[in-house]
ABC-type oligopeptide transport system, substrate-binding protein
Amino acid sequence: MKDSKLRKVAVAVTTLLVAGTLGACSAGKSSSSSSSNTQVNLKTAYNNTGKVDQSANKNSTLKVAEPNDSPFEGISDPTLSSNQEDFDVFSPSGADSLFNVDKNYKIINGGLANLKLDRKAKTATITIRKNAKWSNGMPVTAKDVEYAYEVIANPKTTSQQYSSDFNAIKGMAAYHAGKAKTISGFSYPDGQSGRVAVIHFSRMSPSMQYSGNTFIWGTVEPYEYIKNVPIAKLASSSQVRKNPIFTGPYKLDKVVEGESTSWSPNKYYYGKKPQIQHIVISVVSSSNIDKAIQSKKYDFVIPGGVLHGTDYKTLKKTKGYQIVGQPALSYDYFGFNLGYYDTKTQKNVMDKNSKMANPKLRQAMMYALNLDQLNKKFGNGIVWRANTLIPPIFSKYYDKSAKGFPLNIKKANKLLDEAGYKKKGKWRVQPNGKKLTIYFGVMQGTSTQEAEYQDYLQQWHKIGLHVVFTNGKPMEMNSFYDTLEKPKQNKIDVFAAAWGLSSEPTPTGIYGEDATFNMGHFVSKKNTKLMNEMNSSKAWNTAYRVKVFKEWQEYMNKEAAYAPGSFSYDWEPVNKRVKGFDVSPANNNFWSNLAFTSSDMK
């Protein structure tokens, strides 16, 4: 269950869930206004001491819930998928992860492949284990390692995982620009069909030691299986949508489009053999998830699935279930539309004349929100106001002293006055005297989330800003992201969403100049400089790297191009017939370790 990439999380603003990748629904709130601690204290594992029931393992089905109010897209390939929901429903596959990690997400030996870094030679050597095979029996090869980079960086790709850090690989920039057919920085000591791939870099980064870093991609691609599919069409191909193959503990048996996935053990898996023989993961709406758990329709909610503070209040004492969780690798945020994505240069461009270009306008909108009160009302100790764009699970880099944007109506009005947004009747107008209407994009969610959205609008109206929903109402999740991901759009001026982060906190892949995830199109020389410094040669000194991370957090709060919304716990109810449930990072065999102690749910 390791996070190896950035993902959009189905989120509804100030209430967040988890995650590498965009967000869906929210998670709830806490009464903490200091952004330093949650009220809950959850364990990362359920210690079931019951005896394993082998008959149940063989004949019973593990039923897993994926809470979401929209169908999942169905993109099984981790290089092409960007939504948390796709990652969730295909997670028994192992997500084709290359590396095992320790409790701090540091890469260790023992996974599909081992990693060796050579700072002097500026190389990363990836050695695939001898018995590594795909679920159709094909061997995993060095070319499978390299082809993931081709898929990500191809000029015609639909992948959103590219960032400027990949340019540290020799030849990558030329390939990404369409000036080379291959990536020259890869070599194969025993050939492309061998087990060793060597990546040659122009510079090395301390982040390379950790999974989810933005220099070394953490998954493989089945080159021989997909090589005849144009990369531009890969996401819609049958190899990805209907008949995907994987390297992990389970193979896919069936996909009910947008609704469910079914799994059975992969006989070619190199690692610990799965104990449970049948798994079904089903999408459950946010309005039905609580009743579904209470009526024992599901063994657990998928780790990383979107659950709210109101769900926690309802489910925390449900008979037959144990609540498990840990601080989330995610946060929800507010973003502002500041420009566009240039498809020719493949870079984001700031437009100084955009509606939301003035940082004082953005700051004022954030100071007008009463996120602490909403957290106190709805969070139940699970979610609290965020103060930076680095979540506290990254305790080394997280700036707990940052203030973020606590409610301050007086300051909000002062900022708007200083910026020239004068009142003309009920509403403020632009500094040039023209009418100002700000369009707010959000995703459909629960009644609690709808109440939060209305509160945001009311708070903004208090400072004289005419803010209305895009299209007059919350948007369906896929439609929301389809709009934001257009190279240029003017339907959404400010939006609320969430990130599921990778397990290494460098933000280049989200907020970099060439990051396609940078949907607000924020670009500045200082932002680029600070992110580059996070992984410079100086950054091998931990104290220096921490200093840069904290400086970046302060800078981003000042710019408020992206503003922190909420942090949370990532939690899930687990039925007490399940044994081996452990979401800690060092559990590299999450799905294989699961077993039943009974044929019936407790």
Residues 46-320+576-596 form a domain with the D-Maltodextrin-Binding Protein; domain 2 fold (CATH 3.40.190.10).
